[in-house]
């Protein structure tokens, strides 16, 4: 999200549609004359985000079957943007969950305006973050049953699906660790994929400045820094989990981790 903000993308909480299928159909029926449309990022085991660029809208052939509904949704969407004080050609970012929604949108995208971005992190570190997050918040929102193996499998399956979708050519695969250790190159690769290039010095200064952790983000952090969040699973504190992690060694390797 911070990378997209630095690129000039406006981040909002949600698009105004509760029905995800309707939302997907509406967005897939609109094309942006300016540039890219959508991306998907995993921020934990539970979901990701999508980014849609506004521009000159038009209705695809798929939308013709539901043209009246599309017109209603477009009016609602434009009203929402106006209420948010958002005008002109810019980016909007929204979190969403569901690969089926993404596949539906990609299937309707004949002009490659939908550009998924899959952000993958070591499942073992994600597992620990989820556990720590639950402790921090005082509930088991991501692991209600308390079954650690089931939780790890859910995280691995989500990450493996992201890798699978990226290998099918449905998006770009980005590794969290690369954004920490190879930040400049990773950001340049991502921007090139999205068609957003800011090579000047002023932008890079803005970008680096935008990567500080704000107060709202810190509420969700379970480690002191980005560097401290990597290879956390190797620590002595989590030795009791190593047998659990070894039981899923092969799938973790398939995701891209030794």
UniProtKB/TrEMBL annotation:
InterPro entries cross-referenced by the UniProt entry: P-loop_NTPase
SUPFAM superfamilies: P-loop containing nucleoside triphosphate hydrolases
Protein name: Sulfotransferase domain-containing protein
Organism: Acidisoma cellulosilyticum
